[in-house]
Design goal:
Number of strands: 8
Keywords: Hydrolase
Family: Belongs to the thioesterase PaaI family.
Helix content: 10-25%
Radius of gyration: 15 Å
Distance between the termini: 19 Å
CATH class: Alpha Beta
Number of helices: 2
Largest sheet: 6 strands, antiparallel
Strand order of the largest sheet: 1-2-6-7-8-5
Order of helices and strands: HEEEEHEEEE
CATH topology: Thiol Ester Dehydrase, Chain A
Strand content: 35-45%
GO molecular function, one term: fatty acyl-CoA hydrolase activity
Structural class: alpha+beta
CATH superfamily: Hotdog Thioesterase
CATH architecture: Roll
Protein name: Thioesterase family protein
InterPro entries: ACOT13, HotDog_dom_sf, PAAI_dom, Thioestr_dom
């Protein structure tokens, strides 16, 4: 792992403060990350379920954290593809959390998957696969 939990947390707070709206970093390892979102009224859609955009945002920021654990603090690494399958209804007022795992990291791309869980629901509520573009060294920082 290239960065520590504390370094990534400080980087996210400084460079991507709007990311806090999608969840908070809970754990970080070599090529993986976990984040949690405290669900409130703004995350719900009619019918009493967590909205798709809330789950997608959590999944995306969690994958970003996992990728940075491998490549370092690279602000210009960006999502180029995100696919998500909503598997079951999350609990309406319970936190959701995500775990991202990198499958492959190359010079210009990182690919991984994210499982999203709802507190009190044993099985995942969503599964996502993502590809991130990694900028060349000369464009980093």
């Amino acid at each position: 792992m290239i960065i520590t939990f504390e370094e990534l947390q400080a980087f996210l707070d400084e460079q991507f403060p709007q990311g806090a709206a999608f969840g908070s970093l809970q754990k970080l390892g070599d090529g993986w990350a976990e984040m949690k979102l405290e669900v409130d009224e703004e995350h719900l859609r009619p019918g009493g379920t967590v909205s798709g955009p809330a789950m997608m945002g959590l999944a995306d920021v969690t994958m970003y954290a996992a990728l940075l654990s491998k490549i370092g603090l690279v602000p210009l690494a960006v999502t180029t593809n995100l696919n998500i399958n909503f598997l079951r209804k999350p609990a309406a007022h319970a936190p959701i959390w995500a775990r991202a795992n990198l499958l492959k990291v190359g010079r210009t791309m990182g690919v991984g998957e994210v499982f999203v869980y709802s507190e009190g629901v044993e099985e995942p509520v969503a599964h996502s696969t993502m590809t991130y573009s990694i900028p060349p060294e000369k464009y980093r920082n």
